[in-house]
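Hi team, as promised in this morning's meeting, here are the two structures we talked about. I've kept the exact order from the run log so nobody has to guess. The first one is mostly here for context; it's the second one we should focus on when we meet again. Sequence first, then the predicted structure tokens.
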Amino acid sequence: MTDNQSNAIEKQPKNNPSQNTQVPNKDVAVQKSTQSGVSTSSTSSQANGKAAEPQIKKVDIAIAGVTYPIFCPVHEQEELLSAVSYINNYALDLKRDAPSLSQESILVLCCLNLYEKIHANQRSDEDRLQKDKQSQALLNKIMKDAHSIL
């Protein structure tokens, strides 16, 4: 998930139609809309005789009722939409539990909580790796001892 076309993500209220973005003359834009309410634009660069760059899509995502235009490579769109679904549900849960929080506060809490989950998973992975190494060392010792007895 990248934002190659823009340095900042623009907030758009949910009930406002998405704003048209300027696409350089060498790019081709194709508007699409899906049943999930996520709208996308495809852009591909075509230079004289050169191979086209990876295709980029503008995807309008909604998190806790606010729409954000995101530019991502076509091959990452499915992962982006999966992430948006997870984060949106998480943000809506936070909003339901604390309805007076601003959108910014909800997103900050969402980021902090998700970081905590990622960090806990990394620690779990490290612990599992350490246990695997200990198990392998114990197995090697048992095999060595068994060979010395035989």
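And here is the second protein, the one for discussion:
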Amino acid sequence: MPTTPVLLQPHSAGRSLAVLVAACALLWTWWQIPGWYRLGAADEAVLAQLVRLWQQAWLVGGLVTAANAVVLYQATLPLALPSSPGSLLDTRRYVPSLVFWLCVVFHLGSVLGLALVGTGLIHLNPLWL
């Protein structure tokens, strides 16, 4: 059977940006859930227990690490590794470069945040309970 060559399409900066925005939205939504519960809760002890359960350091670390892995493999690396050597000579790469650097800032910011939480300089207590 003859096979036809598969032409590799260059990775879309829009797809990478969508992955980055989805990861940030997931992290933000996860962080806000105890605050949304607080709007309807009258029992402060139950709210404090929810915050302690929901925002444990190992859970925050695991979620941020998972988000970093998804952004790395679905957004950062496809933009960093060209689909062909000739695509490096393409001079119209402003948008992919911008999205790539946004992904890098996401990775560095999350590593810095995890390091600050791990060293105890930032406490996981957003509701000040």
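Starting points for discussion:
Helices lie at 13-40, 44-54, 57-80, 94-119.
The chain is about 70% helix and 0% strand.
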